[in-house]
Q: What sequence folds into this?
């Protein structure tokens, strides 16, 4: 059901009586009032159908789908690549396989970090980083186990280690992006 924002303003703390009146008038109409304290001011939003809203104004479910769908789609893409029997390359380059593993899982680590750092309820950034690396590595291990059952493929511990390195780099790049955005907004 679409989110309907009826009123959104910023008010001073002295207007608490008006807030109480708005709440009293809207309770019988199936509307909910959400107050968010920001320093000495309150932001008031009146939302219909009891949908919750995040900072961008999307319903929580819609935001979470937008965050986790890329993670799931990319994980499915990795699974597809792991299912291919012929992994021959046109270019012969030393350690190309390890570079590709690192790149592949850096994208997954980046996507996991994006999802965990914006997850509701909010994680601390260190927890989001840890969860991103752990879940990426667990997926890498499951991917290596999956390759045991694919013709002409095998599991490899060095591949899993390079997957871990890539996931850590991807999560770190997203962390740096967040840090830069916060620095830029000051």
A:
């Amino acid at each position: 059901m679409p989110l309907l924002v009826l009123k959104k303003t910023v008010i001073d703390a002295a207007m608490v009586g008006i807030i109480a009146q708005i709440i009293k008038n809207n309770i019988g109409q199936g509307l909910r009032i959400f107050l968010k304290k920001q320093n000495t001011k309150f932001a008031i939003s009146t939302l219909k159908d009891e949908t919750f809203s995040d900072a961008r104004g999307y319903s929580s479910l819609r935001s979470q789908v937008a965050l986790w769908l890329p993670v799931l789609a990319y994980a499915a893409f990795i699974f597809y690549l792991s299912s291919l029997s012929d992994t021959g390359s046109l270019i012969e380059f030393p350690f190309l396989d390890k570079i590709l593993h690192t790149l592949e899982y850096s994208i997954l680590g980046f996507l996991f970090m994006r999802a965990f750092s914006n997850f509701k309820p909010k994680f601390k950034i260190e927890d989001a980083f840890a969860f991103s690396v752990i879940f990426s590595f667990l997926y890498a291990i499951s991917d290596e186990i999956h390759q045991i059952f694919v013709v002409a493929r095998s599991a490899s511990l060095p591949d899993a280690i390079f997957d871990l390195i890539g996931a850590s780099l991807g999560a770190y790049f997203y962390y740096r992006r967040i840090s830069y955005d916060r620095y830029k907004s000051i």
User: Anything to note?
Assistant: The chain has two domains: 5-48, 61-185. The chain has a mean pLDDT of 76.
